[in-house]
Design goal:
27% strand; 35 strands; alpha+beta
């Protein structure tokens, strides 16, 4: 039985099936995302969504959907589904659904009378092309398939409105047609493995609604252009492959292309394999560079997310070469900034003060997984440069306090940490001064750097300097952050010590090297467990705190205000698990293993096979935000790997 399988009873119930989404990417920034039943519920949904370099690398929806119709004896049976103004769904193609299976590729099975038709989708790796294979499993009379393409040609966060500026031209190509609605866009080629008949029937389909956007309080209604339709006869046992891409393809090669792509897939046959597939979807290869996209269906390449998620997305699934390639791209961008202040055109936020700290942590994870010798060979120069840069106060917004050795930063006007929500141009959480995770990461980096420099005579003086710097800040860290209640202040700014119970302290106790001893770690861990732990990760704020807002709902302003005021983040589970196992050792393995059940449950919820950006802080802990998020997938994978390592010891 397939690990990810949904039956007729769920699929025909839109209340249950519409919240479940599926995602496929090409590891080059393009994606396909929709609901299990094929009804787009977000403006970012689409059958072919690609980044366009000339338009700032933002994703653009070219082909929104492809509506299929089964024709027998002249009678059409429409398999598509859209939501129109007033909440009306039409056509109601979901009533023909019998099964959705997602083990190797997404496969939908339809039954229309005596007709059984399957539909399977694959995205071609590193190419802006999606293939859909239709197979007529059963039919008792001649059958024709009709395909009606819904075109958008707009940025994924925008909406299309009926207009006279579109280019209506449809140009015949081999086994299909090509069209481009607006200047500046690539041409869309729609082709089949079998020769179709194209029928011109140009129309705007007005008033298509996206219910998720309606819920989010943002514009949610658009018009889509349908230039006509294809018709292809199909026999029992026969397959027809549809291709949508930005370059023309030879129809004879579609079958071979499809089969070659299938062979490279890891079956989604387990919790780990689902996360492994999801991890690889965040990879982006562009020219000589390799990057990590922060999430889907919206997301960009962010420096912090790159370094935070890099170990989990690569090393936890034995993709060492990908770690090295992505780190080479990201570290080069960081070194350029450290040397000259130059920002990177592709990696956003490279100038934020905690980026070197997360980069050093990522190198440490490489050393733990691959070995210290290989880490020394590849990264000694980078680590030395980053540590020296911080010690010499090279960053414009990161300073080593000469009195206590702790790091300070100014976050009063602009957010400086991952808790970066803004309201009316100001940080909602004004984390400034001494931040707990900044200083924990710094202490950890100094001790790790010293270990990396062992037996390196040239670095002996610096190694001792790093050890001295770590020792200098150890007691001040405890004095600064550890309070009488046994947990760590989130930040200390002047005389103000933030008493809110937040999960950044979990980073401090989950690192390999911490200023805290085992007893102190346990005290902090107890508070985190009692006030922040949920089945979906750690809450961003304790329910006991003023301003706790556990649900990420409402208007854009309401959601921004709630972003870090209660919703849970799965990525924090990685540090929590490490802290728990450091305190309890092997006796804590079964507990962390049980905690992973909450994430395994999510494999059939939200974006099937992946993890959402955040989850409500209160039951039933529903997923919100981006449907698939890199740091969450990464750190849950790292937790799974951590459990395996403990079990093998």
């Amino acid at each position: 039985m397939s690990y990810l399988k949904f039956d007729k009873n769920l699929l025909i119930n839109l209340e249950q099936s519409l919240p479940k989404e599926m995602l496929r990417t090409n590891q080059a920034g393009a994606y396909h995302c929709t609901t299990l039943v094929g009804c787009n519920t977000r403006k970012q949904h689409g059958l072919l969504v690609i980044p366009i370099k000339e338009m700032g690398n933002k994703p653009h929806v070219l082909l929104s959907s492809l509506d299929e119709t089964v024709i027998q004896h002249g009678a059409p049976f429409n398999l598509g589904i859209h939501r129109y103004q007033g909440g009306v769904y039409s056509p109601n193609g979901h009533k023909y659904l019998r099964e959705f299976d997602c083990e190797s590729v997404p496969r939908i099975t339809y039954r229309v009378g005596g007709v059984i038709l399957t539909k399977e989708k694959v995205f071609i790796s590193h190419e802006n092309r999606i293939l859909i294979r239709y197979t007529l499993v059963e039919a008792h009379s001649p059958t024709t398939l009709r395909f009606r393409p819904f075109l958008a040609f707009r940025e994924s966060n925008a909406l299309c409105i009926a207009n006279d500026a579109i280019n209506r031209d449809v140009v015949p190509v081999d086994n299909g047609v090509a069209t481009c609605l607006y200047d500046g866009y690539p041409t869309l080629y729609m082709q089949f493995s079998h020769k179709p008949v194209w029928v011109d029937e140009p129309n705007w389909y007005n008033g298509i609604e996206y219910v998720k956007d309606l819920e989010r309080g943002v514009p949610y209604c658009e018009d889509l252009w349908v230039p006509g339709y294809f018709e292809v006869p199909i026999r029992k046992g026969e397959s027809v492959i549809f291709s949508a891409g930005v370059s023309e393809v030879k129809p004879r090669g579609l079958k071979k292309m499809y089969e070659a792509e299938i062979e490279s897939r890891t079956p989604r046959s387990s919790f780990f394999n689902c996360l492994k597939n999801s991890a690889k979807q965040f990879y982006i290869k562009e020219g000589d560079g390799m990057y990590i996209l922060s999430g889907f269906p919206w997301g960009t390449v962010l420096a912090r997310n790159t370094f935070m998620s890099l170990p989990g997305l690569t090393l936890a699934i034995d993709h060492r070469a990908d770690f090295e390639a992505i780190m080479a791209t990201a570290s080069a961008a960081l070194l350029r900034f450290m040397d000259s202040g130059e920002l990177d055109s592709r990696i956003n936020g490279i100038d934020l003060p905690d980026i070197p700290l997360w980069a050093l942590w990522a190198v440490q994870q490489y050393a733990k997984n691959i070995g210290m010798e290989r880490a020394r060979e590849l990264y000694t120069g980078f680590v030395t440069r980053a540590i020296t840069y911080i010690l010499e106060n090279g960053h414009p917004n990161l300073r080593v306090d000469p009195d206590n050795g702790l790091l300070t930063t100014d976050g009063t006007e602009t957010p400086v940490s991952w808790m970066n929500a803004n309201h009316e141009g100001r940080p909602i959480i004004p984390r400034s001064g001494y931040l707990v995770e900044f200083n924990a990461l710094w202490y950890n980096a100094l001790v790790f750097a010293a270990s990396l420099a062992e037996d390196n005579g040239d670095l002996a003086p610096r190694r001792q300097q790093w050890l001295d710097a770590a020792e200098k800040m150890r007691q001040p860290f405890i004095d600064m952050f550890l309070n009488d209640s046994g947990y760590l202040y989130d930040y200390v700014d002047g005389r103000y010590a933030s008493p809110e119970v937040r999960p950044n302290m979990a980073v401090a106790i989950g690192l390999d090297h911490s200023p805290l001893d085992r007893r102190q770690r346990k005290g902090v861990l107890d508070v985190v467990t009692r006030e922040l732990l949920t089945p979906k990760g750690l809450r961003t704020l304790s329910p006991k705190s003023f301003g706790y807002r556990p649900t990420y709902l409402g208007s854009p302003d309401e959601r921004e205000l709630a972003l870090h005021q209660g919703p849970a983040r799965p990525w924090l589970m990685g540090f929590y698990a490490e802290a728990y196992l450091k305190v309890f050792g092997h006796s804590g393995v079964s507990y962390i293993d049980r905690m992973l059940i909450g994430f395994e449950d999510e494999m059939t919820e939200g974006c099937v096979g992946s993890l959402s950006q955040l989850y409500d802080g209160n039951p039933p802990f529903r997923g919100r935000g981006a449907v698939s998020h890199a740091t969450n997938v990464a750190e849950v994978l790292r937790t799974v790997r951590l459990i395996k390592r403990f079990n093998n010891d």
